[in-house]
């Protein structure tokens, strides 16, 4: 028996017609003899709507109830998909996360998968079921509460199932026909890649390329899952789309493989904090406890024993950050002058394994941005990426300029 994991994202199951279309694609794989584990997302826009309802009801919501509400979109598509397949005489049933059960940590809103016992689904395959339709994005905590895996989490559900069931492949069907050098929606010259290395995909995903959730790439890398991204709207062959694979299996050698962006960033500056040992720990400790994902950090040169501390975090965590900092100040943990918040920033990053051996990528990046008059507010680098924080209104311009500057529209010779 060979198990294939297929995952259809929100746009690919946006209405009953699209569900029918996806089901036809599943039927092709079933006809080839695969037993299919089919992971589905909520219909396009559903999860956003549910998140909006939660925020409108309770701005600093209880994360357990957030998960109870936001996980529900996937239940609808899983049920509808199973019904569609049954209509096509394909034996199928739906599974919600807790029914599998997909066991996770209790970190609500961004839980990690701990285990996926395979017995229940394997038994059903043994009894003649051909497709297990699984609601993506959701699981169950040790306390028995429903959890979610973070936005875009159905990708991670899919890869985790592929690893647990030792699937022949994990096919991620989406609304673009593969992984591109940058988001094709904001750069017309973006080029589809036939292959991309796990490490580059990991960086691109964590820096905002939402085509795959970061954690899904981590899991695929660790468990050697054969991971492919392809379009749900085109006829497919076994070679279509983009294969995410080991570095050794790639011929291309551009210094930069791709450009990523993250739109919803905020920059927070604390002015007039004491420049003394332990100050960073006393500021970032309370932020971590409040669940704020701090990204870039800069500390200014100090004057008269005082300094400014700047950090970035997702826009929707600013309220949480502000509350945590105010409370810490009230408790006398540290003091500061002003809290200056800029919600209109974006992060743009260039990524490439080739940076390890090519010098001057940072200089080239800064030059390209300078030529477009884009001011850089914060910079961070690592071995294979360089990120800058800029005004959000220049984000698309910056992505396009960098795509040009690094010649990404053409494959490396
Ligand atoms: P799904 O609902 O199928 O999970 P997502 O919207 O989460 O789809 O991810 C697909 C989207 O990712 C594309 O529509 C595209 O706009 C965006 N994207 C961002 N960066 C890239 C990239 N480098 N390559 C392909 N798509 C990208
Ligand atoms: N529906 C969830 C989201 O929109 C999970 C997913 O689509 O991967 O984030
Ligand atoms: Mg997605």
TrEMBL record:
- Under which EC number(s) is this enzyme classified? 2.7.2.4
GO MF annotations in UniProt: aspartate kinase activity; ATP binding
Any one cellular-component term (Gene Ontology): cytosol
Instruction: Provide a GO biological process annotation.
Output: homoserine biosynthetic process
List the keywords (alphabetical): Amino-acid biosynthesis, ATP-binding, Kinase, Lysine biosynthesis, Nucleotide-binding, Transferase
Cross-referenced Gene3D superfamilies, in alphabetical order? Acetylglutamate kinase-like, VC0802-like
- The ACT domain, residue ranges: 268-353
Q: Where does substrate bind?
A: 47, 74
* Listed PROSITE patterns: ACT (PS51671), ASPARTOKINASE (PS00324)
User: Which residues are recorded as binding ATP?
Assistant: 7-10, 174-175, 180, 185, 210-211
**Catalysis performed (reactions):** L-aspartate + ATP = 4-phospho-L-aspartate + ADP
User: Pathway it belongs to?
Assistant: Amino-acid biosynthesis; L-threonine biosynthesis; L-threonine from L-aspartate: step 1/5; Amino-acid biosynthesis; L-methionine biosynthesis via de novo pathway; L-homoserine from L-aspartate: step 1/3; Amino-acid biosynthesis; L-lysine biosynthesis via DAP pathway; (S)-tetrahydrodipicolinate from L-aspartate: step 1/4
Top class in the EC scheme = transferase
Against CDD domains, the record matches this protein to: AAK_AKii-LysC-BS, ACT_AK-LysC-DapG-like_2, ACT_AKii-LysC-BS-like_1
Tell me which domain of life the UniProt entry assigns to the organism this sequence originates from: Bacteria
NCBIfam families in the record: asp_kin_monofn, asp_kinases, PRK06635.1-2, PRK06635.1-4
UniProt lists the family membership as follows: Belongs to the aspartokinase family.
Instruction: Provide the protein name.
Output: Aspartokinase
